[in-house]
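Propose amino acids for all 267 sites.
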């Protein structure tokens, strides 16, 4: 039976009924594969800055980068809900910029994910009001890595924990359809999840959220220094290295191409 398209409403309706599995993808082949695997949501995350562009954080990812990668992922025509990250400084400067940039970064047709809580209420509220679905992102906001002084856990103090709950409620009120909670103590993520009616999606925040999201390169073993909360499901780095080592050796040794690989090529 063909899988039905996952919509924002599908994701919202899953809270309390079925756990939500999301993953990042940044290109066409990976989007095809994760969609075939039955993923609920594909995030074209600005983690692409680190995962595929070689930057040390996400700050240099541009709207143009996002446009190219969202378009590539969209060409896979996934049944999963497609969400585009809003890069650093494409929404913080006001509602007008956010509206213009959200419609670009999302290719005009996707959900978007800016980072932040109460401070981006107006941005989220206006995006939703004009028809662009928003997934929130609280806890560790990697776009604030410089002011935070590194990628660190948020919500360890009572004050921070309370703020996270207020942030989640504000995003819900602004119209967000779901909220990513990144690197927060599990008990705090649980409290946040129980304080809102929209689904929460954890990354490094324990098992009590309504769903999980991870960076695809981390679970496939392609990241040099993956975060400790990411499970490696396969060591693709070794598989790729072994395959290419064999190819290099066969080309150098004259074993490839053998006749079977050029019998159809007319001279
Ligand atoms: O950019 C990204 O991949 C993200 C996830 C880590 C949630 O924001």
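Proposal:
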């Amino acid at each position: 039976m063909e899988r039905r398209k996952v919509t924002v409403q599908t994701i919202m309706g899953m809270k309390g009924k079925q756990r939500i599995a999301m993953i990042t993808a940044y290109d066409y082949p990976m989007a095809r594969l994760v969609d075939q695997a039955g993923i609920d949501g594909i995030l074209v995350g600005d983690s692409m800055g680190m995962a595929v562009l070689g930057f040390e954080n996400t700050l240099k990812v541009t709207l143009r980068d996002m446009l190219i990668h969202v378009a590539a992922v969209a060409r896979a025509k996934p049944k999963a809900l497609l969400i585009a990250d809003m890069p650093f400084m494409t929404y913080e400067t006001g509602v007008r910029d956010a509206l213009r940039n959200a419609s670009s970064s999302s290719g005009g047709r996707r959900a978007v994910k800016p980072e932040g809580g109460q401070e981006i209420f107006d941005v989220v509220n206006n995006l939703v009001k004009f028809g662009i679905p928003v997934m929130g992102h609280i806890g560790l906001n990697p776009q604030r890595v410089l002011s935070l002084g590194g990628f660190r856990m948020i919500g360890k103090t009572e004050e921070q924990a309370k703020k996270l709950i207020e942030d989640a409620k504000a995003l819900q009120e602004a119209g967000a359809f779901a909220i990513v909670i990144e690197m927060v103590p599990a008990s705090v993520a649980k409290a946040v999840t129980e304080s809102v009616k929209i689904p929460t999606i954890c990354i490094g925040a324990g098992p009590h959220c309504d769903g999980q999201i991870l960076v695809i390169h981390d679970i496939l073993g392609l990241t040099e220094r993956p975060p400790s909360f990411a499970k490696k499901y396969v060591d693709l780095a070794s598989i790729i290295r072994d395959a290419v080592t064999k190819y290099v050796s066969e080309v150098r040794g004259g074993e490839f191409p053998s006749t079977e690989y050029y019998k159809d090529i007319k001279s």
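The chain is about 40% helix and 15% strand. Residues 24, 43, 45-47, 85, 137, 180, 182, 203, 213, 215 surround 3-methyl-2-oxobutanoic acid (CB under 6 Å).
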